[in-house]
Structure formats: structure tokens, C-alpha cells
Write a structure and sequence with these properties.
The chain contains two helices and six strands. By secondary structure, the protein is α+β, with helices and mostly antiparallel strands. A six-stranded mixed beta sheet has the order 1-6-5-4-3-2, covered by helices on one side. The two termini are about 15 Å apart.
Length: about 120
């Protein structure tokens, strides 16, 4: 799935149904380059994929780890790759989150299940 930070448009017919069961805030741990707004946008996509793959609508925990990062000389993150390990309903799934800054200062991202 691909999204646009601050302007995410979800094209999944089951979005409303999947998100209604994800009203609680899962416990986050680990390291991530996401700020709270970007984390929330990415999490919406993770919730949709996790629900579709597991039939579970309740994520208990997300453990994030940075697997790659490229910074500009200024220190700003140009692109980053993370693994998000998601657990809910006794099931765990891992997702690759790829992020890239754009010319407007926003972040494009994609979320893909790991095999």
C-alpha cells in the first residue's frame, strides 16, 4: 500500500470496517524515524493489512526497527526503511515500511508485508 503523509487516501472498501475494531492504541516500542502524525498515517495502512491478512482487528503491540536510513548533509532524513513487527490476537506479522521525503517537505511511504 502507498500513502501520502498528511494527505493519505485509502482506497480500500473495507477501511471503515477494519478501523472500527482498531480504536485502542497499541503499545509501540523500538526505534523509528516517524513523528506522531506520520506514525498514525502509517499505522492506518498497517492496521488494514494486518486485519486483511489475519482477520484480527485488534493490534496489541508494534515493535519498530530502522533497517536503513539515508540522511542529507543537513541531517534531514531523505529516505528510511523500517520493519514493523505487529502482534494481535496471538498472531504476529512483519511489515516493511519505506519512507521518502518529497520536495514539499512531506513524506511518501509504502507498507508491504514481509514474506
Amino acid at each position: 500500500m502507498q500513502g501520502k503523509h498528511r494527505f493519505a487516501i485509502l482506497h480500500c472498501a473495507f477501511a471503515a470496517v477494519a478501523l472500527t475494531g482498531c480504536a485502542h492504541n497499541p503499545q509501540f516500542s523500538g526505534q523509528s524515524v516517524t513523528d506522531p502524525v506520520l506514525r498514525q498515517d502509517v499505522m492506518k495502512n498497517v492496521e488494514l493489512l494486518f486485519s486483511a491478512m489475519t482477520q484480527c482487528r485488534s493490534i496489541d503491540a508494534v515493535n519498530t526497527s530502522i533497517t536503513g536510513i539515508h540522511q542529507l548533509p543537513s541531517g534531514a532524513v531523505e529516505r528510511a526503511s523500517e520493519t514493523w513487527d505487529v502482534t494481535g490476537c496471538g498472531v504476529s506479522k512483519a511489515y516493511t515500511v519505506e519512507m521518502r521525503s518529497d520536495a514539499r517537505g512531506e513524506t511518501d511511504f509504502s507498507v508491504l508485508p514481509q514474506r
